[in-house]
Amino acid sequence: MKDIVLFQLQFKNKGKYLGIDYGKKRIGIAISDENKIISFPRDYILNEKRTLDIIYNIVCIENVERIIIGYPLTLQSEKTDVTEEVEKFRDKIDLLLKNRGLNIKIDYYDERLTSSIAQHNLFETGKKKEKRKEKGLIDSLAAQIILQDYLDSRKGNN
Prior knowledge:
Elements: H1 2-10, E1 16-21, E2 26-32, E3 39-46, H2 51-61, E4 64-71, H3 81-99, E5 105-110, H4 114-124, H5 129-132, H6 135-153
Parallel strand pairs: 1-4, 4-5
Antiparallel strand pairs: 1-2, 2-3
Helix pairs in contact: 2-3, 4-6
């Protein structure tokens, strides 16, 4: 038993964080490194029947210990039409994970202007116009921005 406890202590806080930019058609995905310093965009997923199972698989494969979901607010900090959808989506993820024996914390993080910033950053990279128009790429870059901002805001608080 002592060995199990030591093993768990050794690997505590070695999981990654998953960043999600929710959309009605596509969901942007980003993953942190194990040290929770840098975020990386991943392929977006389509918002369809299998979405929750795909997220569950990502959580398991990437050893995710926390999920950060972009929370849509207006510039005046008011909820939008999509805010309620995001809240329901978060609850569905939470229920699925708990039903499968995983107790993973899910946080919201203000996502104001992240898609605009992602588009601007993509433009700055010099990618061709056709490549910049790939909305899924923008969704995943927005997820990366959400997650990176979250990570930066918590430096020293892990």
